[in-house]
Amino acid sequence: MPTASNAEPRRVTIEQGGPVLVEGPVELRLPDGSTVTSDRFVVAVCACRRSKRFPFCDTSHRKKVRG
């Protein structure tokens, strides 16, 4: 089992105007002290706080375009 000194680093990608993509699995600690986990391969973490599934992104940050 990897230790902190020899563990592979997690890749975190910050999307312009979008979510923060984190290689999973992840455990997120929220401001109220609670935690949520995801075992997905890549986790989209909401950066704008508009998600109905916060802290996970549901693309609510996208502007609606009507044709």
From TrEMBL:
Superkingdom: Bacteria
Start and end residues of each Iron-binding zinc finger CDGSH type domain: 23-67
Gene3D superfamilies: CDGSH iron-sulfur domain, mitoNEET-type
Keyword terms, alphabetized: 2Fe-2S, Iron, Iron-sulfur, Metal-binding
SMART domains: ZnF_CDGSH
Naturally occurring in which organism (per UniProt): Amycolatopsis dongchuanensis
Transmembrane parts of this sequence: none
Protein name: CDGSH iron-sulfur domain-containing protein
